[in-house]
Amino acid sequence: MSTRRTEWPRSRNPGPSPRTCRFTAPAERWLALDDWEAAVVAFGRRLAVTPYTVPDEVYAPIAARLTREQIVALTAFGALMVATNVFNNALDVPLDDYLEPFLRGEARHG
After folding, report:
1. Is residue 68 part of a domain?
2. How many beta carbons lie within 10 A of that of residue 86, not counting itself?
3. How far apart are CA 4 and CA 94, in angstroms?
4. CA pair distance 59, 62, nearest whole angstrom
5. DSSP code of residue 66
6. How many whole angstroms from its chain centre is CA 39?
7. Which domain holds residue 84?
8. Nearest Cα to 90, choosing from 8, 25, 1?
């Protein structure tokens, strides 16, 4: 048994390991996002996938609506979510039950 992993309490229905969790489709296919929400998702996706660059076409809608201070807060929040996912994946923390519909692409917005 590995000494670096901690046995976390498992939920009633832990589902797949966070290491193998993949959304069944892009959020835009199963959430009804308006233009602003889609811009925030695109920004967050860039932070998660390529954290060192956010292209102008992704940044522009954010900058058009938010103040510099709000952009810093949004970016910090996104970075914290990335860090949370790194932590959860490293320690094999199971997915919370309430997130299961999102994993399967069954969640609906609005």
Report:
1. yes
2. 10
3. 16
4. 5
5. S
6. 14
7. 23-104
8. 8
Cα dihedral: 91, 86, 95, 41 (round 10)? 180
Q: Which of 6, 3, 10 is nearest to 91 (CA)?
A: 6
Distance from C-alpha of 55 to C-alpha of 48, rounded to nearest angstrom: 14
Contact 30, 107 (CB under 8 A): yes
Q: Which residues contact 102 (CB under 8 A, 6 or more apart)?
A: 23
Residue 31 per-residue DSSP state: S
**Residue 94 domain-assigned (yes or no):** yes
Assess if residue 11 is contained within a domain: no
Q: State the pTM of this model.
A: 0.65
Contact of 82 with 48, CB cutoff 8 Å: yes
How many Å apart are CA 8 and CA 6, to the nearest integer? Answer: 6
Give the total number of structural domains in the chain: 1
| 84 within domain boundaries | yes
The pLDDT tens digits for 6-47 are 454 544 444 444 444 444 455 556 667 899 999 999 999 999
